[in-house]
Design a protein that fits this description.
Blueprint (H helix, E strand, L loop, with lengths): L2 E8 L4 E6 L2 H8 L8 H5 L2 E10 L2 H12 L3 H9 L12 E5 L5 E7 L4 H12 L4 E5 L7 H11 L12 H5 L2 H4 L5 H10 L8 E3 L4 E3 L3 H7 L3
Parallel strand pairs: 5-6
Antiparallel strand pairs: 1-2, 1-3, 3-4, 4-5, 5-7, 7-8
Length: about 220
């Protein structure tokens, strides 16, 4: 059974952190349906989910919940914006992209001028897939996101580098990467979205890097 840790924004602007096994059902409970919401949200009605993470088991979800509750409100706001890291030690928890009431959707990382991304988008649209699109140049992946996606993908970290890009060649990374630590590589990838291979498709339980139709068809059959 999957567990989720979440940050919920209430209508008065305050933030509530909790864990659940079903995000949409828990939002309804916080909204007063079924009489099983938290004491806090009974007097601070929920507005929307701001962030959520999938944990492999209850203990991992509770560790992340404990970490988040120790943050100040301003730190939580930074975490929501992607300018604060929760640390690699908690990256067995996968950040999710969800609707305001807890529906889980895929994240499609792309670049507007990339023809391969255009083909991948046409593939998704041809299957009526629900996804949120994000331009990798305008909003490059954070280090936390990259660590989580790398773990979920099962791929070597080098596969996340855009080896055909100008930045990769300009920095002579083909020579430097073998001598860099994994931490250094993650930091470098997070510094510039154009160093990251695209497209990337992030689902609840898998990550696809680059567009190979056979791989995408296996995960998203007609």
């Amino acid at each position: 059974m999957a567990y989720y840790t979440y940050i919920l924004r209430c209508k008065d602007g305050s933030l509530y952190t909790g864990i659940t096994t079903h995000l949409a059902r828990r939002f309804a409970e916080h909204a007063g349906l079924g009489g099983r919401g938290a004491k806090y949200t009974a007097s601070h009605p929920p507005l929307r989910y701001e962030a959520a993470w999938r944990a492999p088991h209850r203990a991992a979800a509770q560790r992340l919940e404990h970490r988040l509750k120790a943050l100040s409100k301003s730190q939580k706001e930074r975490l929501i914006l992607g300018t604060l890291s929760i640390g690699p030690d908690l990256m067995q928890c996968t950040p999710l992209h969800i609707t305001q009431d807890g529906g889980i959707i895929m994240l499609f990382i792309c670049y507007a001028r990339c023809t391969t991304c255009h083909k991948a988008r046409a593939f998704l649209d041809g299957r009526d897939a629900a996804y949120q699109s994000r331009d990798i140049k305008e909003q490059n992946p954070t280090e936390d996101e990259l660590r989580s996606w790398h773990r979920l993908s099962g791929l070597p970290l080098k596969r996340f580098f855009n080896t055909s890009g100008q930045q990769y060649r300009a920095l002579e990374l083909s020579k430097k990467l073998p001598h860099m630590t994994e931490d250094e590589q993650f930091s470098l990838l997070a510094s510039d979205g154009m160093l990251v291979r695209r497209p990337i498709l992030v689902a609840e339980d898998f990550v696809l890097v680059g567009f190979k139709p056979s791989e995408w068809e296996e995960r998203l059959p007609v």
